[in-house]
Design brief:
By secondary structure, the chain is mainly alpha-helical. Helices cover 89% and strands 0% of the residues. Helix 2 packs antiparallel against helix 3.
């Protein structure tokens, strides 16, 4: 966006566009992180805080999240190698 705005002498428009996108990204990431932490806390609370079951639930959430990130990364890698 900034390259386009600099090439077309739209300095203020480019700056405002980048700020708007940055703000949107920050809000989205904050909301998703809050939802993830809240869901994990609720699951641990429902399974009994401090119990072995709660530890398994917490570990399960962490492993599932790591596997999800790995799968997204591998799919992006595969898509870029095909192009």
């Amino acid at each position: 966006v900034m390259s386009f705005s600099l090439l077309n002498a739209l300095y203020l428009g480019g700056l405002l566009s980048v700020l708007a996108m940055s703000l949107g990204t920050a809000i989205t990431v904050s909301i998703l992180a809050t939802i993830a932490v809240t869901a994990k806390d609720v699951a641990i609370r429902l399974s009994g805080t401090g119990s072995a079951r709660a530890a398994r639930v917490a570990s399960g959430f962490e492993i599932a999240g790591a596997l999800f990130i790995l799968l997204i990364g591998l799919s992006l890698l595969g898509a870029s190698l095909q192009a």
